[in-house]
Design goal:
The chain is of the alpha+beta class and about 450 residues long. The chain is built from twelve helices and eleven strands. The longest helix is centred in the first third of the chain and has 19 residues, at about 125-140.
Length: about 450
């Protein structure tokens, strides 16, 4: 991928002293050819700690450091003396080519929030709001306090790879008098047979995605964003999700969803030559407005999993529905998780090894005219219904340069015979235009709102 990095952000102000943090604690610029959205290097975790993170580790008694400066053990001490781990020290950059929260790996905790502009609020109020939100996101992602009325919820934590992402819904443009700047790609999604949509939990003028590897850090950002909205916008809906915590497995692996299946095996990879053209709007796009350069379109769906029905199936039946082995994600045609699926392979009876209606077969790009989308979901569990049915499933978020060619193409194919469809239900939906990242001195969406 092209280098996404921009000049380093100004040195943040310390939460506790108001003084500038030492320059040696600032993150180093991303190496050429590498995305600045990746966490900072773990080469010297102690050196990379911000003042806020050091406060959480101060007072540790009997701390033992290895030759490289990494904590390798500590004597008996109160729980608060435990040094910060590498999970808390991870940091994503705010000022990057593409907004953060798109190409990062899955995060342990997430919040998706849609806002509607308040009555009487228009373009001027929206611009002021995006300016506030952008500054708050920049500070919190750097592990610093919000500029005003910080709640201190994340005071003892590191940045925990926090990302905050902003987008605009179809209705935003009429509300702000910017109809001529609305992308054609934001036309409403068509209806699908699996839809049981709740309009009150769908769409919205503005959309915010928050992700972090610590629940309190994510909640801290959520509260800051909600408070910053002030009288300019009101929450339309909010959804809370989770993924496996980084480091919970012995080695990196594809995440599992609440059905126990690996989810994301066929995701496009940034190293692929056509990744950018599939996921991001090019600067010279002939069909998208200029303010969407380097941006992407997010489709957001709350997909309820009918787990009671799913869990009644045998392991073999579940694998037939998906088309992959549950244990390791390998296609039923054989090999490992990354082995190319053999769509023509048959068994001793002449039947296709990967069933014709298997989910993995239907969603393959080569079965959909090359359509591809970057899936970056969160699981959710919102309790138990009165009849004892779990309200659980997937907060599906996918990214693409063109939602009609990406999500819509694949979902229409799934509508025509996906074996998985009888075990899921789409309960809410949204489509949002997510502009490119803010350059130094800019806020997200400035090229739209101040054009």
């Amino acid at each position: 991928m092209p280098d996404q990095s921009l000049p380093e952000a100004p040195t943040p102000v310390s939460r506790s002293t108001g003084a500038r943090a030492p320059e040696t604690l600032a993150p180093a610029p991303a190496p050429a050819g590498e995305s600045a959205e990746r966490p900072t290097s773990a080469e010297s975790p102690v050196k990379d700690l911000t003042r806020r993170r050091l406060l959480g580790a101060a007072g540790a008694s009997g701390l033992v450091l290895g030759a490289a400066g990494v904590a390798v053990g500590y004597a008996a001490a109160p729980a608060q003396a435990t040094p910060l781990s590498s999970v808390g020290a991870g940091q994503a950059m705010f000022h990057v080519k593409h907004q953060p929260g798109i190409t990062q790996g899955l995060q342990a905790r997430g919040h998706l929030i849609a806002f509607d502009l308040a009555a009487g609020a228009g373009r001027k109020e929206a611009a002021a709001l995006l300016r506030r939100w952008s500054e708050t996101a920049r500070l919190l992602m750097a592990g610093e306090a919000a500029a005003h009325d910080d709640t201190d919820v994340a005071r003892d934590a590191g940045p925990s790879s926090l990302t905050v992402t902003f987008g605009f819904g179809n209705s935003f443009f009429a509300r702000t008098g910017l109809e001529k700047q609305r992308p054609v790609a934001l036309d409403p999604l068509p209806a699908f047979s699996s839809d049981h949509l709740d309009a009150t939990r769908s769409n919205g003028d503005l959309w915010v995605q928050i992700g972090a590897d610590d629940a309190l850090v994510a909640f801290h950002a959520l509260r800051a964003v909600q408070k910053d909205a002030g009288g300019a916008a009101k929450v339309r809906w909010q959804m809370n999700g989770f993924n496996r915590t980084p480091g919970a497995t012995a080695h990196p692996m594809t995440a599992r969803n609440l059905m126990g299946q690996m989810d994301g095996t066929r995701n496009p990879k940034p190293a692929e030559a056509d990744f950018d053209q599939r996921i991001f709007v090019p600067a010279d796009s002939g069909k998208d407005p200029a303010w969407m350069a380097n941006g992407s379109y997010a489709v957001v769906r709350r997909i309820r999993m009918l787990l009671d029905d799913w869990e009644k199936l045998s392991l073999k039946a579940q694998e037939q529905v998906v088309g992959r082995r549950k244990a390791d994600g390998a296609a039923l045609s054989g090999g490992t998780e990354t082995t190319e699926m053999d769509l023509e392979k048959t068994d001793a009876n002449g039947d296709l090894v990967v069933p014709i209606n298997a989910h993995a077969r239907i969603t393959r790009p080569d079965q959909n005219g090359g359509a591809a989308m970057l899936r970056r979901p969160f699981s959710y569990h919102d309790g138990i219904d009165p009849d004892g049915t779990p309200d659980a499933g997937l907060l599906f978020v996918c990214w693409q340069a063109d939602p009609l060619r990406g999500f819509v193409t694949v979902q229409r194919k799934l509508d025509r015979g996906d074996a998985l469809s009888q075990y899921i239900r789409h309960e809410s939906s949204g489509l949002f235009a997510v502009p490119g990242g803010a350059a130094k001195g800019e806020y997200v969406g400035q090229r739209l709102l101040e054009a």
